[in-house]
Amino acid sequence: MIRHLIYIAYYLLHTSPAEISRLVRYVKKEKNVSAIFLLKDILFSSIKYKISFMDYFSFRLYNLDADGRNEYIGAGAMYEYQLKMNPKKYRTVLSDKIHF
Fold first, then answer.
1. Start-to-end C-alpha separation, the chain
2. What are the backbone angles phi and psi of residue 83, rounded to the nearest 5°?
3. ∠72-5-90 over CA atoms, to 5°?
């Protein structure tokens, strides 16, 4: 759970508030839902599906149910996958083509 909160903090620091605001207004109008509902859904989805705030809009998760949302892998999940598949002690091998 702590990791999810770290991701949220990271997304907040690296996402343009103006861009999020623009996208929330767009979806709010398109789906006829409140901004509060959308923000809660973005946060919930970010935690549950390990997606960034921009992933939420890029993947159009606001149009999908839980089964549809499970079809996507977000920034947080990809980061964890990359860490697992590329352990730190082997990264030098991966980055050095001659050694690889």
1. 36
2. -60, -40
3. 70
Q: Measure the CA–CA gap between 94 and 75, rounded to whole angstroms.
A: 21
Our CA dihedral for 34, 38, 41, 43, rounded to 10 degrees, sits at -130
Question: Is the Cβ–Cβ distance between 50 and 74 less than 8 Å?
Answer: yes
Cβ contact 49:70 at 8 Å = yes
Tokens 């702590």, residue? 2
The residue type of 17 is P
Nearest CA among 66, 61, 78 for reference residue 27? 61
Whether the Cβ atoms of residue 15 and residue 53 lie closer than 8 Å to each other = yes
In tens, the pLDDT along 14-67 reads: 999 999 999 999 999 999 999 999 999 999 999 999 999 999 999 999 999 999
